[in-house]
Request: fold
Amino acid sequence: MDVGARPHPLTSDLADVVGRLRENTVEMRSRGRASGSGIIWRADGLIATSAHVVADAEPVRPGAQVVLADGRRLPATLVAWDRKLDLALLRVEARDLPAALIGDSDRLRAGELVLAVGHPFGLIGAVVTGVVHAAPALGRHAGPRWVQADLRLAPGNSGGPMADAGGRVVGVNAMIVGRLALAVPSRVVEAFAMRCAPR
Amino acid sequence: MQTLLSLSNDLASAVERAARAVVTVHARPRLPSTGVLWRPGIVVTAEHTVRVDEEIRVALSDGPAAPATLVGRDPGTDLAVLRIGESDRLAAEIGDSAELKVGNLVLAVGYGPRASWGVVSAVGGAWRTWRGGEVDRLLRVDLVLYPGFSGGPLVDASGKVAGLVTSGLSRQLELAVPTSTVTRVVEELLATGRVSRGYLGVGLQSVALPEALRRLAPGAGTRGLIVVSIEADGPAARAGLMLGDVLVALEGTPLHDPGDVPAAIAGRRVGTTVTVSLVRGGAPLDLTVTLGERPSRRR
Reply:
């Protein structure tokens, strides 16, 4: 057997999915400092992220900026935010952005592959892989049901995408509890976007 | 894209298949643990999570919690066996842990079902746990054992059970008890309610054997084990062993370290006899000891 001549198809598949997901992921900055990650939710400039990435006591930190994967830096304005859902929507002046494919968080199965892209510790576009720990309906926490994943996130992953094996975004990474990654399900994000920024 | 998607589907299906035989075990305060329906009506879980002997409740993957009875425990291998009322439920598909190789993808499944994934990080030969049990193979996995996962199945990519995960056998490492060990313990607990281990009833300390003594006792190594305590009326006492005897071999196997003794007799049943070679007062001597049962110290 000609070992090492060609990578396993799994490897190239993973590289393809990760490559696309990195284009859908943005870096959130405020006051010139990185504050987390975000997702290009729509090609017309709608960005989804976690509320705690763009706001703390005040609704939005001044001077919010979005850095695209191609390096462009765009000023962002706040469209809506919800502390309970831990979601925020921002808008940048741009068209034809590489929008993320949106998956269906309600159809996740325990054990299926998930990956996350984000900017933990200043590493741009870092990827981690794992599996769905439990489908969203099992969330024990009050309020929104979470996608729970056996996935090693770090603080800078907040607001970034959790995606399935097809690269479809199934959640917005929100927090780490114990060694579990929790994400706001894509269903919740999509409903929030339809409510606050109708097409 | 197809390879990645089909792997993802396979993993989810493996969890789904295994989850049918995964149960929730309520046998300690607050946090339940996981169990596997090893045979129809028979559940195996991690012994350290069974903190009570009565009023244990077990919930099947799709049902309410129902009373279960404790068949027996083997603290040595951290396994406990429970009997549930419902016996027409299909049991888990049990694979062979010996087929696992380092690097194989595996999943741990907790009640829920909840999943955790990783790879087999090391395999090895038989080993003795800190609790004194004999485990057929060392099976170390690189995955997170989330709270409540102990007693759940280690599952291969096809959904077959490849072991039982527990955090009770090591503080540092994530370990799984191989399926052959679980089946052996289940059979013994079902037959007798306990796993008995052969027992001598002596306290031993390693000593260097002088060259002269070694020549006297053929089969002796460089060290022997001196008897420093002896249980009154224990198996060794009844066979005539005395304080100060220096044991040099057991069934022809040289003894260097006190741990060699349980290793040599653990597999032997209570009531069988072993030949102990020793040196007493400068003269070699062989004694036949009938193995007894370790007195219970638990609860």
Chain A has a mean pLDDT of 88.
